[in-house]
């Protein structure tokens, strides 16, 4: 495998006279730049060469994400000389190299309470993959547990906004933290096929292009989606499969859309939008269900995708047994990226009947200084996001 100079440095910095006195390494930048592979490889090479019978931490957004993105790849990344045994019930690995053996515990930094999972443990080092997705309290607690002499901190991430605490505390203050900062772009990965690179360049637009392709810490600002009536409004409904997506609300608006997926397009054929606050009357789950029946009409709806928090409405749909129902995937930022991609590629289209969707596209904006949309004019936007994340990404990827 051919590696770039930057990738080799991420692997070997701890053993090079010019760099080995650093206490930490930070690898940030573009997706598919090879930073994770090299950082993880360097972490295990360093820990096994420097310690024996010590304990280390490997942290991700969740333990399942760590297993998927890193642990399952380790035999391929490290080679046969490393003997890796996973103890799933204890969320730990034991790794042997020659006559040395170390233990690596897996931790998930999902929310503010996650810091408690690392309290009390003593570590000789910690690797934090996708550190910007973890709460600050968790990251700081994990770093504080590294009290063994010679311990080091290893960070990887894609960029977020320039107001993110990790950018301000670690990227901007790398020298003060005695941290080696390596910024990666796709050019730093010679193993990335040019066609794959072009695919990623086409996949993202706007703020996500700057972050994930150019590797820039850029703020999200202004309108979230680039919606164009000329490009995204159509009268042509393809032959295809039908779905309904729902954002549930009682006091807040209830939004649902009927979709037809076929011919490489997904068209929102019509929609139902009810604002109980404006109408001065809240509707019951039964009334919303009848509205869904009217929205479906005579179309053979394969599945209804529902806001996962709407437990009572999901239970009612299942009780009637007329429709198959599924809880929506509800990760906001990845969902926004998915919607933006399908809008940009022309896959996602709307008929003129979808007036509330069209209206919300012109009002859906980023909250100033935060990595989140303003929680107004977002109900059709949410049900569109549910549809794209849960149904469309699966259909278009297969």
What can be said about this structure in brief?
The protein is an alpha/beta fold and about 400 residues long. It is built from 15 helices and 14 strands.
Can you offer a commentary on this structure?
The chain has 398 residues and is an alpha/beta fold. The chain is built from 15 helices and 14 strands. It has helices at 5-12, 35-50, 63-69, 74-78, 136-144, 165-171, 194-203, 206-212, 229-232, 276-279, 285-296, 311-320, 332-345, 355-361, 379-397, and strands at residues 24-29, 55-60, 83-87, 92-97, 100-108, 125-129, 152-157, 179-184, 241-247, 254-262, 265-274, 301-306, 325-327, 348-350. The strands form 2 sheets. The protein has an 8-stranded mixed β-sheet, sandwiched between helices. A 6-stranded mixed β-sheet has the order 13-12-9-10-11-14, with helices on both faces. The longest helix is centred in the last third of the chain and has 19 residues, at 379-397. The radius of gyration is 24 Å and the shape is elongated. The model has no long low-confidence stretch (mean pLDDT 93).
Supply Rg. 24 Å
Report the β-strand fraction as a percent range.
15-25%
Structural class comes to alpha/beta
- Segments where pLDDT lies below 50 for 5+ residues? none
Strand arrangement across the biggest beta sheet: 3-4-5-2-6-7-1-8
Number of separate strands: 14
State the helicity in percent bands.
25-40%
Tell me the series of helices and strands, N- to C-terminal: HEHEHHEEEEHEHEHHHEEEHHEHEHEHH
Give a quick account of the main beta sheet: strands, pairing sense, barrel closure: 8 strands, mixed
Mean pLDDT value: 93
- Rounded to the nearest angstrom, the distance between the terminal CA atoms is 29 Å
- SS summary, helix count: 15
The geometry reads as elongated
């Amino acid at each position: 495998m051919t590696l770039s100079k930057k990738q080799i440095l991420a692997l070997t910095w701890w053993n090079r006279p010019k760099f080995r006195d650093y206490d930490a390494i930070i690898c940030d930048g573009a997706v598919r730049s090879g930073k994770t592979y090299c950082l993880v490889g360097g972490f295990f090479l360093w820990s096994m060469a420097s310690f024996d019978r010590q304990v280390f931490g490997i942290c991700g957004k969740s333990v399942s994400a760590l297993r998927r993105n890193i642990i399952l790849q380790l035999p391929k990344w490290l080679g046969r000389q490393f003997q890796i045994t996973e103890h799933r019930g204890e969320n730990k690995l034991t790794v042997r190299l020659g006559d040395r053996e170390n233990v690596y515990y897996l931790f998930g930094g999902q929310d503010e309470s996650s810091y408690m999972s690392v309290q009390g443990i003593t570590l000789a080092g910690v690797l934090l993959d996708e550190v910007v997705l973890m709460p600050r309290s968790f990251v700081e607690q994990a770093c504080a547990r590294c009290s063994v002499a010679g311990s080091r901190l290893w960070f990887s991430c894609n960029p977020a906004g320039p107001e993110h605490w990790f950018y301000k505390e670690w990227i901007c203050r790398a020298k003060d933290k005695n941290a080696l900062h390596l910024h990666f772009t796709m050019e730093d990965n010679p193993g990335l096929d040019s066609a794959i690179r072009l695919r990623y360049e086409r996949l993202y637009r706007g703020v996500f292009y700057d972050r994930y392709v150019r590797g820039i810490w850029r703020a999200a600002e202004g309108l979230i989606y680039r919606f164009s009536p000329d490009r995204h409004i159509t009268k042509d409904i393809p032959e295809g499969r039908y779905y309904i997506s729902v954002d549930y609300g009682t006091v807040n608006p209830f939004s649902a859309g009927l979709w037809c997926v076929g011919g490489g397009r997904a068209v929102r054929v019509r929609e139902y939008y009810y604002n109980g606050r404006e109408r001065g009357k809240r509707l019951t789950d039964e009334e919303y269900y009848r509205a869904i029946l009217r929205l479906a009409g005579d179309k053979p709806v394969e599945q209804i995708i529902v806001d996962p928090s709407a437990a009572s409405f999901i239970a009612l749909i299942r009780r009637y047994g007329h429709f198959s129902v599924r809880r929506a995937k509800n990760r906001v930022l990845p969902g926004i990226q998915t919607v933006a991609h399908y809008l940009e590629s022309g896959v996602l289209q709307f008929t003129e009947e979808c007036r509330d969707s069209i209206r919300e596209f012109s009002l859906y904006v980023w909250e100033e200084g935060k990595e989140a949309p303003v929680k107004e004019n977002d109900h059709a936007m949410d049900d569109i996001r549910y549809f794209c994340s849960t149904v469309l990404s699966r259909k278009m990827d297969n």
